[in-house]
Design brief:
Layout lengths: L2 H9 L7 H25 L4 H25 L4 H17 L11
The structure holds magnesium ion (MG).
Magnesium ion (MG) binds next to helix 2 and helix 3.
Length: 104
């Protein structure tokens, strides 16, 4: 599935008011749920296979909110993905893949 098609399909179920803040909080909440899966794996509650299985839908939930947040900010998901890949490729080319900060 193409990213913009996915984003468009996400918007079919995206309703209500205060959409920008709700989409942002949705990203945070679902990322938290994913973190919880990883925490429980590290604590020994899950083996790797169960971590994978429990994380699959949570990653989808994060992706959903990323897609609607991008829309609320006026971006197409494919533009964000292409920009991000170009940024990473440039950093790798310059030997700056490690470290932090957006402007390396
Ligand atoms: Mg979830």
């Amino acid at each position: 599935m193409e990213l913009n098609d996915y984003q468009s399909k996400c918007l079919n179920t995206w309703h209500g008011d205060q959409r920008l803040i709700r989409s942002f909080l949705g990203v945070c909440g679902e990322a938290g749920e994913l973190s919880e899966r990883i925490k429980k794996h590290l604590r020994g509650d899950y083996d790797v296979q169960e971590l994978k299985s429990r994380s699959f839908k949570e990653i989808g939930d994060v992706l959903y909110y990323i897609a609607v947040l991008a829309h609320e900010l006026g971006f197409e998901l494919s533009d964000i993905a292409e920009d991000n890949i170009a940024k990473l490729a440039k950093r790798q080319e310059e030997g700056k893949i490690k470290g932090d900060g957006d402007h390396r």
